[in-house]
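Memo to structure team: turn this sequence into C-alpha cells by end of day. - J.P.
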Amino acid sequence: ANPERWLTGFAPEDVDHAVSLLESLVYFSTEQTTKLCTSLFHSLSEEVSAGQATYADRKASWSGFVNNCLVTFPTGETPNPTDSGHTFARLARQELEIDESHFLYPGDVVQSQYRGQRRPDVLEDDFGGSGKRGFKPWSRMCQMSGGSQPSFECMASMASADVYYIATVDTGDTVCSIGRMGGCVMVRHT
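Reply from structure team:
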C-alpha cells in the first residue's frame, strides 16, 4: 500500500475528500487475510464438537467434519468467474489442506443435498457487508434436472445437514448470526 502515491492522483480540491476516504480504509495483508480465513474455519470446531465429553471425542468429531464437509462460497448477483469466492476457496484448500473434491460451486452443493447426500456444508465468504448479500445466495434457486429448483434455505428446512456461513470480515450488519436457522447453523465472524 502506498497512500502517498495514491493521493497524488487527485486534483488539489479533491485531496481532502481522498484523505477522508483513506482514513476509513482498512487494509489486510495477504498474511493477515490467510490467518483470518484459516482461524475462522478452525473456529467451527467449537460448534462441530459441542457436547463431546473428551478431547479425543472432540478431535474425532472435528476430523470427521473436515473429511466430510463440502466447501462453497456465495456468488455475486450475477455469478461469474471473478467472484471473490474462488480466491477464498483456493486459500482454504491450500492452507487448510482440504481435499479438492470437497470444493463445489453453490448449485452443486445444493444438488448434492437434494439427492440425499447429507454432508455438512460451509459457505465461506470474504465480506459479509449486508444481510441482503448473505441471504441472496441462501435463497437463490438452483435449477435441477427434472425441473426442481431447491435452494440452501429449502434444503436446510427439509434435511438434517448443517450449513455454516462464515464471513472473514463482517460489518455487523449481516442478518445471519450465530445460531440455528431452519435446521441450519449460521455462523458470523467479525
